[in-house]
Amino acid sequence: MSLLDFARGPAFHVAILIFVFGVVWRLVGVFLLRRNRDLSPARAGHLLEGGMRAILMRSLPPHELEKHIVFQHASGYGWHIAYFAAFLLFGPHMPFIRQFLGFTWPTLPNTWCLALAAIALALLIVLLLRRIVNPVLKRITSVDDYISSVVTMLPLITGIAANAHVQLFGVRYEELLALHVLSVCALLIWFPFGKLMHLFLAFPARFQAGVLLQRKGVEA
Amino acid sequence: MSPELERRALGAISVAVEFESGNVPLLLNELCHALERLLADGTSHALDLRAIPLAPGEEDRLLLALGQGELVAQLEADGLSEIRECAYPGIWCITHRNPAGSVVGRFIEVTFVPALLASQRADVALGLVRMTRTLRGESRAQEGAGAAVPPEKAHH
Amino acid sequence: MDRMNQSVAEALAARGVSRRGFMKFCATTASLMALPPTLIPTIAAALEKAKRPSVIWLPFQECTGCTESLTRSNAPSIESLIFESISLDYQETLQAAAGFAAEEARNAAMEANWGQYLLAIDGSIPLGNPGYSTIGGVSNLDMLKHAAEGAKAIVAIGTCAAFGGLPNAHPNPTGAVAVSDIVKNKPIINISGCPPLPVAITGVLMQFLVFGQLPELDALGRPKVFFGQTIHDRCYRRPFYERGQFAESFDDEGAKHGWCLFKLGCKGPTTYNACATVKWNMATSFPIEAGHGCIGCSQPHFWDAGGFYEPLSTTRWGGWKQLGIAAAAGAAVGAAAALATRAGTGAAKKEEKTS
CA–CA separation, C180 vs C187, rounded Å? Predict the structure, then answer.
């Protein structure tokens, strides 16, 4: 069995099962946790609207800090958007998506996706370096952060290398493609067990915080 | 369906996809630069059209763009070959066919005279031998009735 | 002059071909070996001295497609190949002799050229039971081992001989293996393809004839000159791939416009062969040009690579049922974890260790 056959076959099969198992485990584990009952009466109604507003407001930079965190904020949005666009709007990825969803959508020319992927990778690298160099960020960075950064970057690096037919160290195209699939497997396996779970938890968490604050009558 | 209707239907089906991959202008540019070099220092250049991935119809479009010049030479050697000067002097299109008539090679040469046009030294030497023998045979035939046969000269 | 000891140039001259004709032969040979026209004088010089090598062709567990491909060669034509370039001393499909006479001719040729002949093999070798494939009562395995001893080099023609091919595909009922799985002490050139391009077969034979040595080989033992590039890298539909224009199904608008066949399962990106440049049937066309994706027939185990119509970007994932089972298992573990935590915090609250 070639490396590519292994990557597209048993490796991905195991990775996606671990991904689903792990994500559901963590979501169920979090949502079934006890929350302390607030024994005081609610100060205001419209709790659901409060939750939704929190999702919106917390997607924007806090007013007091907005001038100081422009780079952090813009680059965060920048690489997320570029990353997902490069993944979801790349023609050759469509059969992969179709096998799960049964349908696809229009895509961008390959060079556009290559540019988006390059932008995402550049921003990720800059942010990682900033994390290492900045003393405050370095102090609050954990192993989880480093691993999550790396498994996020690897599909971009291997995808760009495969698309560009990089010939370093005599590596051939089919091996680069195999590495790309294996890097996605690594991402899928790590996903449920680190901070990447924010994909599923960020919005529910904001919603919950918004509901609690609304209950307390906070205008936020 | 009558045979006539069938023929019309078949003829209406387009078998060639209209497609342009941009190779023709690139190759024409390469040949243009080769012509410059030929004039500058006499360097020849050759393109093997079999080695270039051309889309369907592109080879024909390239040859059409190169056009037809003044000179066409046919070479009958193990199949027919054609050496044709293109509309741009100095650019030659050489097509080799095998005895069955299939194209076995197609080259574009940029040169003053393609090597295949010139007589080959070995062929000239062999031809001289043949011609000498023929002349000897004819002169012997002329002197044949009665006159002494001149001694054979050993030729190799 | 003894035909066996003639050089190629002499053989051509004996047939009445002029020096010009010889130059034409050298030019088409250069093209066939994908060498630049600047090397034509080198080829001419070599062919003036090169003696026609003896070639013994043994067919094993094969479909004869490789021989069929060879006979479609037009540069050189099969006749030209046999009469001028090589001495094809044994080839069951093409030879007139049969039975004991053929066997004797083969053995005589092998003895006369022992250590110098090129051994061409097509078809895989069954190891499951030697009786699965025999010639004149001799198993392929025994015949290969004996013939390989006296060969200068072995040319494994076709994916079956090179990698096991169709017989080797799951579940491999005959225990079929490639030539290189059995012969370990002789140089082996793999000319893979199902069948290989005619020019790949003749090109290697001509390379051996002209340069007296084997061409540069890739990691799978295939001549780089024909197997050094992928179909994808030389495909004329590549611009459509780059522009993101794909045919979504056979005969749709995209297919009619000649768009990329990636989504229809084309294995061009991972297949090394020269079909996109050299093409088939005297450069008429090749599968992609005819509207069907490449099936990767020159790659090992292409029959078991996941399906001809499965695009390269698809994976094995087990289906929604399996994901559902994984989700159910995850939910069970998550619920157990949450309940354990709740019990723990409940107990801590009772003991007033937390609020």
Answer: 9
pLDDT tens-digit profile of C262-283?
A: 999 999 999 999 999 888 987 7
* Number of domains chain C contains: 3
Task: Give the structural domain span for B68.
Answer: 19-110
Which residues of chain C does A4 touch, with a Cβ-Cβ cutoff of 8 Å?
A: 270
CATH number, position B89: 3.30.1370.140
All structural domains of chain A, each given as residue ranges with its CATH number in brackets, are 3-30+70-192 (1.20.950.20)
Percentage of residues of chain C with pLDDT beyond 90: 57
Q: Global pTM?
A: 0.83
Tell me how far apart the alpha carbons of residues C271 and C22 are, in angstroms, rounded to a whole number. 36
Q: Which of C23, C258, C283 comes nearest B17 by C-beta?
A: C258
CB contact under 8 A, A34 and C313: no
Query: What pLDDT score does B153 carry?
Result: 43
Output the DSSP codes for B102-139: -EEEEEEEESSS-TTTSPPHHHHHHHHHHHHHHHHHHH
Residue of A nearest to C318 (CA): A13
Q: Are B106 and B27 in contact (CB under 8 A)?
A: no
Question: Distance (Å, rounded) from C-alpha A52 to C-alpha A220?
Answer: 12
The pLDDT of A40-61, averaged and rounded, is 86
User: By a Cβ cutoff of 8 Å, what residues of chain C touch chain B?
Assistant: 12, 17-21, 23-25, 27-28, 30-31, 34, 36-38, 74-77, 80, 234-236, 239, 256-258, 276-278, 282-283, 285, 289
Q: Do C196 and C240 fall within a single domain?
A: no
Is the pLDDT at B5 greater than 50, yes or no?
Answer: no
Domain interval for residue C129: 52-226
Q: How far away is chain C from the Cα of B67, in angstroms, using its nearest Cα?
A: 22
- The CATH number assigned to the domain holding C297 equals 4.10.480.10
